[in-house]
Amino acid sequence: MNRNYHKWLGGTLMAMASFAFLASCSDDHFDIDPGVSSRQTLWESIKSRSELSQYADILSRTKYSKNEKTKTSQTYADLLNHDQTFTIWAPKDGTFDYDYYSNLLNTGKAEDSYKVEKELLRNSMTRFSHVMTGNDKLELDLFNSKTAVFDCGQGIIKNQKIVTPNIGASNGVLHITEGAVEYQPNVYEFIASRSDLDSLNTYIKAYEKFEFNESQSTQGPTVNGQITWVDSVTFLSNDYLYGTLHAFLNREDSLYAMIMPTNKAWSEALERTQKFYKYKSQYVQTIVRVDADGNESTSSVTTALSDLERDSMTNLYSKNAIIGDFVFNARYQHGYSYKDFNKAGACDSLINTINRVFYDPVNASLFDGQEPIEVSNGYVYVVDNFNLKVEDGWGEPMENQAEEFRYIDSYTGCTPTSLNLKQRFRVEDENDPEIMVDSIVEVKLLRTVQTSSAANPSITFKLPETMSCKYDIYVLMAYNTEANLPNKFRAQISYHTADESRSSMENTNLTVPEGMAGEGRDFENRPPRIENGQLVYVDSILVAKDFEFPVCYKGLSDAYATLRLNSYVTSRQTSQYSREMWIDQIVLKAKEE
Predict the structure, then answer these.
(1) What is the pLDDT of residues 430-475, one digit of tens each?
(2) What is the pTM of this model?
(3) How far apart are the first and last CA of the chain?
(4) Residues of each domain in the chain carrying CATH 2.60.120
(5) Which of 261, 311, 370, 536 would give a disulfide with 265, using CB separation of 3.0 to 4.6 Å?
(6) CATH superfamily of 184-394
């Protein structure tokens, strides 16, 4: 997310034309008040009018800012006394909250002064001259990048009545209004606008930083060996919003919908999400390597985490779990209106800015039944309840593709190779012989080629990035159509315990869940079959139900759990089962409970 701030003021300003460029709602003519000398600047005109004394006071006391943290020595009175051309919509005395803005300036804080600029001064001015005549409507870009409709026929600017229009000045046009032009925050600004969003605001703003952009700035003279800048451009960036959420919430030309948890919702959500990120102080990982001759060697890698590192990682991931799924680009919701987002049954699906899709009715529950609050670049939904479950959001299924060899930890009795299978199948429905499916299957697989005819292949896969929670774990294994035989194999999970006195890994032998093919510790895959009228070639084998990892591996590169698959076919069973395994992927589905 980037926002530009231009230092328009300085010792050397770009020369402007001596006359004001006049743009009107109706381009054929304009009507400037003849009672005011055009030799007066906008500042001189404002200062001379008794009904604008409060507005003039704010202009004279407010320093122009390079960014939210840094003020210049120049005031807005200085700006409007120069030859740059502006149109000003100045509120009459008593029609805006003068005391509020005056008190902000009295604090002396740069951020408070910037608030006055952003909400009042820049919100009531625009570049170039715009006079009120005719009946047209003109959409203008205000000086704070907001937009406002200038309705000449109705005599209003953003629904604010203009009581004295078209006061000419040497550097623009002045209009006097019945009140201040309404300031409408954007999504990013709204986060900081309410005290009940403090938790969210603190988290988001922690990633905020200002960066000077030399390439877009204008260099001035060198003074005492130091470069000065006539026109400096500073970017306000937020690595979390831009880099992680891919959301430019401060851009006025965008259209976002964002769910914002209140402090109550944030606190309750944090209690839920933190338990998924329990780290231990030390992980010892045994690394197995196999050379070209099939000989194994082992070594150990230790990952040590300080208390501060553990707390920081838990804090990072648990808070990202709360807000990471809650930003939507409102323009890309398959034609659905933002008014429908919070209604069950109204939207089949919604996709957020990190490309996660939520389907009805989960998508509606995220908005907690709240009505949208309109902001300048979208809509905000403030929720008191965090209704996102791990399986629906931040704990989306992990699909470790077996043919991507990076997931292989070790292997024995075989050589893993890739298999690009393209085969035609004609399969009869076992429940209805009259139903036949004729289909071509294309799939990439990992193939465990035996090193000898007597070998039972064994292969161990890494399970990286798992959280400290329950998972259902599946092995997607294809039917060996060359041998035309099923597989029989055993499975074992290795993981670190939460016991700090033990840094090595624990092993758990898995047993066949009820309803799955096989018996005891011996899993089996099924041949191609028809389900719901579709051919199923790759069998999804549930090898572990509700398996709970005691500790988290999120963000750790050298520590992870593993899943070992071991073909378990005796010499007497080789006519019944194939020892060679064709593996598609390992899938882990996180569970809330």
Answers:
(1) 666 666 677 777 889 999 999 999 999 999 999 999 999 999 999 9
(2) 0.81
(3) 36
(4) 398-591
(5) 261
(6) FAS1 domain (2.30.180.10)
